[in-house]
């Protein structure tokens, strides 16, 4: 069962995003996709509480984020790490990876999330920007796009207003 909580109760966002990872999920009642992410931020911009995510255009979830006004960020306990690895390495283009995982999707109000999550952040997109390598001030970042870490195109950044935070009770 989920309970709405104040955003200030989220906890250590560095651990949540960078260590625990998250699922970025977008879609509607008919079609949904999700991807695992360990990059992003939570903060304040334009006097709004916001989440910022980075998605490469070749990811299937990119299409869902582009087509929908909302997305969710779902965070899980360690026991679901294998599911997060699976959902991050399989494409929804090739299989129904959500159905093939051990997680249960909850669809509603164009804000799909997972029943097993310990924390859900519901987001409404307010800003989109394409990353440009010409803007990097740290040349080491180039390795994520032109070096040994290169696994695809340049990220698209989405900033979204946090409209609700739910915690599993």
Tell me the layout of helices and strands:
Elements: E1 2-4, H1 13-19, E2 22-27, E3 32-37, E4 40-45, E5 48-55, H2 60-67, E6 70-75, H3 81-89, H4 97-100, E7 105-106, E8 113-114, E9 119-130, H5 143-146, E10 156-168
Antiparallel strand pairs: 1-10, 2-3, 2-6, 4-5, 5-10, 6-9, 7-8, 9-10
CATH class: Mainly Beta
- Distance N to C terminus: 6 Å
Question: What is the strand content?
Answer: 35-45%
Number of helices: 5
Binned, the helix content reads 10-25%
Which fold name corresponds to the CATH topology?
Pnp Oxidase, Chain A
Radius of gyration: 16 Å
Characterize the largest beta sheet: strand count, sense, and whether it forms a barrel. 8 strands, antiparallel
Q: How does the overall form come out from the CA principal axes?
A: globular
Regions with pLDDT < 50 over 5+ consecutive residues? none
